[in-house]
Design brief:
Blueprint (H helix, E strand, L loop, with lengths): L2 E6 L7 E5 L8 H14 L14 E6 L3 E4 L4 E4 L10 E5 L13 E6 L6 E6 L11 H17 L1
Antiparallel strand pairs: 1-6, 1-8, 2-5, 2-7, 3-6, 4-5
Length: 152
């Protein structure tokens, strides 16, 4: 499965966002228990001991222009945001388990930054974190269309 991604920058300064599939980090014990109960109800086929659900952003799997706060639940962009080379992304701590079937997550945009240029999506492990989520697929599609068009 893919991991959740968020990013900012690249031609206009991305803002901050937060989100993730659940709680995490420093939640009181009763909240953690309630969260586990709800996740088990939502995703009965997922064994979290075997395949943990994504609950926060990964401090290890992000580009340097990304900052994390609030137990890795809040993302903020620290780059210049003037060109596409300024783009940055972050992945969740764990991929979405295939056993989920349908996976639900929310992201709250706290600030759009200077120009509101940001992306929210999913990405595979190994995708360049110096791009917005989905950018590689869009470029690949663009080049395929252009190449096909040029052959006619």
């Amino acid at each position: 499965g893919g991991g959740g991604g968020g990013g900012g920058g690249g031609g206009g300064g991305g803002g901050g966002g937060g989100g993730g599939g659940g709680g995490g980090g420093g939640a009181p014990r009763w909240q953690e228990k309630e969260l586990k109960r709800r996740l088990k109800r939502l995703y009965p086929a997922v064994d979290e001991q075997e395949t943990p659900l994504p609950r926060s952003w990964s401090p290890k799997d992000k580009f340097s222009y990304i900052g994390l706060s609030q137990n890795n639940l809040r993302v903020h962009y620290k780059g210049h945001g003037k060109t596409p080379k300024d783009a940055a992304s972050v992945r969740a701590t764990h991929p979405i388990p295939a056993a989920c079937g349908i996976y639900y997550f929310e992201v709250k945009i706290v600030s759009k930054g200077r120009d509101g240029y940001m992306g929210i999506g999913l990405s595979a492990q190994g995708v360049n974190m110096n791009r917005l989520p989905g950018m590689f697929q869009l470029l690949t599609l663009f080049f395929k269309i252009c190449f096909s068009y040029g052959k006619q």
